[in-house]
Amino acid sequence: MRRIILFIVCLMANISHAQELLLGGDISLLTKYEEKGAKYYDINGSSIQPLSFFKQEGMNAMRVRLFVDPTSSVNTDTKGACQDLDYVIKLGKRIQEAGYKLVLDFHYSDTWADPGKQTLPKAWEGLTTSQLATKVYDYTTDCLKKMKAAGVTPDLIQTGNEITYGMLWPTGQIYPAGGNATGTMANFTSYLNNAIKACREQCPNAYIILHTELGNSHNSTVVFFKKMKEQNIDFDVIGLSYYPDYHGKMATFNGTLTTLETNNPRKPIMIMETGYGYEYALPGANTSYKEFNLTQDGQAEFAKKLISTLKQHNSVIGMFWWWPEANEYGINWQNAVTDSWWNASLFNNSTGRANKALYELKNFLVDNPAGIENINGDNKIVRTERFYLNGIKTNGNATGVTIEKITMASNKEVIRKSFGRK
Question: What pTM was computed for the model?
Fold first, then answer.
């Protein structure tokens, strides 16, 4: 009996670890806020250090964006697009030394890349499509080699940022749901495949995320991943941005998640960006989508409802708040980090105190990760809400699954199975 119990304990630890949920944020500007003297406090007014405080509040992964040459763009420090490779290595090292997983976000641009713009890096202008594909491979390889040499190996990698409509415009622009794009699917997939190839070679244990945003109809996102399946793109995780100000009410988002799960049953989903204002709406917000008050309580209510919605979907394994570290308190406005406040920060720009929503986020992780309630007298695992078998989440009860029928595997093997890796 003791051997059986020990076996069970080891098995539970193995399954639970393999299916660790990821919670964090994109903290790419933390260095700048710290350098310029931002003062951070918890909700009660006690001074805190953001990296250790986020960890205390349950976060376990952080994302950092990377631009090709931000000095070549008009959007430099005051716009938040200042993260070159040296910057990313230094911040990435701090993140990993603090015990977080590191998500690297390649923008493949000198400035912001998103559904409205995927600007070709200045140094890459004039290249043919074939030369661009090679440049993507060489650039990605070089960045990852230098990061590894510095002791910073990403755990997860985004090959492009919000690439719903392609990347490296104009030749890599696509409209997956139809329309007159300036580029072709062949060009886009060539760029994407070369990025992924470099990541697989340099960081074989990292997981590749394809990150899109949820257009107002959400149809483009669903069709995008359908096209990626048709093109046999080698990736691990569906990454999404969801901002209710732009992407619709929670019920619409919930329906899109269901469709993505149905169409991609072997792909986990992560919310790579989300956020909601605590005082002001986001720029260009669609007021018809408004479900929550623009107050601290309203922002916290959004976080609660988002987490509740995500927990309805077995495929969702990660959630990242966009720009949670934004905080101009203590900084001379004439020397501000950006030229305007980010309205959906998890800190109050006027007081430096943590918002209520920050304390809600850890509830995303509360889900009895291994799904184990007890072991009955016949050595069978019984009663579970979310049961993990070799890294695969299934709904309902797992009564009758015997210990002898559960295959032991290394964490790496289990994770690869759950992510659909070969």
Answer: 0.85
